[in-house]
Predict the 3D structure of the following.
Amino acid sequence: MAVFAIVGAGLAGMTLAREFIDAGHHCQVFEKSRGIGGRLATRRCDGWQVDHGAQYFTVRNPHFQQIVDTWCQQGWVAPWPLEPWILDRDGLRPSPDERKRYVGTPSMNAMIKGFGQGIEVYTQTRVDRLERVGDQWRLWDDAGEQYGQFDAVFLTAPLAQSLALLPSGSRAEVPLRNASMKPTWALAMAFDQPTGVEPDALFVREGVVDWAARDSAKPGRDGELEVWLMHFASQWSANHLDAADNLLQQQGLTLLRTLLRNIATSDLPTPKQVFTHRWLYARSGPVEMPVPQWDGRLKLGLAGDWTLGDRLEDAWLSAKALVADVRTANF
Ligand SMILES: Cc1cc2nc3c(=O)[nH]c(=O)nc-3n(C[C@H](O)[C@H](O)[C@H](O)COP(=O)(O)OP(=O)(O)OC[C@H]3O[C@@H](n4cnc5c(N)ncnc54)[C@H](O)[C@@H]3O)c2cc1C
C-alpha cells in the first residue's frame, strides 16, 4: 500500500482518490476551498441556488458515457433536455441541436459528493509548497503546517495553480509555462416574479455575455424564484477583471430586455437578489502536455481538464489516464 497526496478536490482529484483507494492505497486530498467540487460549483443563497461554474456537460467518450449512466442511476446526474437559442448579428432564434446535456442533481457536484463518500479531504487547506524528503514528499500549506510524508503527489489544481507548485526540473515545467487560462465573470439574478423570457438558454455570439440560462429550469431544482445565470465572454472578463457588480448587473438586465423582444421592457421585474463570482482560472487554452502525465522519477502526477482540453469530461479522462500510468509504474 502506498500513501498518496492529492491537491484539489474537483472531479479529477476526487476521481483519482476514489480509484487509488479502491486499489488499496491510502489517499489524503487537500482542497483550498470550503467544499469539494471545484469548478462544478453551486451557490446556495437565501431560498435559491445557482450553478455559477460549469453549466452542464456533454459526453463523447464511451467509457465516460458508462460512468455517467451509473451516475444517472444513482440520481446524482440527470439529462437536461434543452432547446438552446442563439443571438448573433442575424438576431435571436431557436438553435436546436442533437447534443445531450447533463447536469448534477440537485447541485452540480452531486456525483463527487456521491462517489467521494469516505474520502479523507482536508478542506480550507491551500497547499503552498512541495518538499522532497529522500524519495518521499512533504506538503506545506499557506499557514505553515506540514503534512506527510507521501510516496507520490498528484496535482489537479487548474493550470496556473499546479504550475506554481511544480518542482523545478519537472518534465512538465517548460510546456506549462507557455500556457494560459482564461477568466470568466458569472452573474446570477433571482426574480420573485416571472421574467417572461422565452428561451431557457442562450448562446450569444460576439456579445459581452456569451451564455445565459434560466438556471431554475434545470432538472432537480426546486426553489421558488426564477434564477438567471450569465457568463461573460472571456475576453471581456479579462479586460474587466475588477468589474463592479453594478456593471455586471446592468449588462445582464440589458440582455434579458433584448430577449423580451415584443414585451414592453418596463415589464422586466427587478431582481430580488444578485450574486457575482469571478473565475480567474475558468478555462484553459491549448497545452502541449508531456505524455504520460506521470513523472516516475519525481513520483509526481498531473491531472485536470487542462491536461487534455477544457471540459468536465477531460477532467475525468485525465484522471483515468493517470491512474493507468501509475498502475503501469507498479505502485
Ligand atoms: C465558468 C465556467 C463554465 C464552464 N462550463 C463548462 C461546460 O459548459 N461544460 C463542461 O464540460 N465544462 C465546463 N467548465 C469546465 C469544468 O468545470 C471543468 O472542466 C472541470 O470542473 C474541471 O475539473 P478539475 O478537477 O480538473 O478542476 P477543478 O474543478 O478546478 O478542481 C481543482 C481544485 O483544486 C483546488 N486548488 C487549486 N489550488 C489549490 C492549492 N494550492 N491547494 C489546494 N487546493 C487547490 C481548487 O480550489 C479546485 O477545487 C466550465 C468551467 C467554468 C469555470
